[in-house]
């Protein structure tokens, strides 16, 4: 199993704001809630969700 990462890492990797990440989460982005205010993500699942939903990413193509 891939390790879980924070929202900051997801936002940095995809060059998106926290607001966009929150919107994606409400639209079905897979996440793991660890406690009342701690949510983590698996980068592979995020990438799959972006691809399957054809979401445009600001930093697409940059590595």
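-> sequence recovered:
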């Amino acid at each position: 199993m891939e390790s879980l990462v924070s929202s900051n890492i997801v936002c940095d990797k995809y060059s998106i704001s926290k607001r966009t990440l929150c919107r994606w989460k409400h639209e079905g982005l897979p996440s793991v809630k660890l406690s009342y205010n701690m949510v983590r993500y698996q980068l592979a699942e995020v990438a799959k969700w972006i691809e399957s939903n054809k979401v445009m990413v600001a930093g697409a193509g940059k590595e």
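The chain is about 45% helix and 10% strand.
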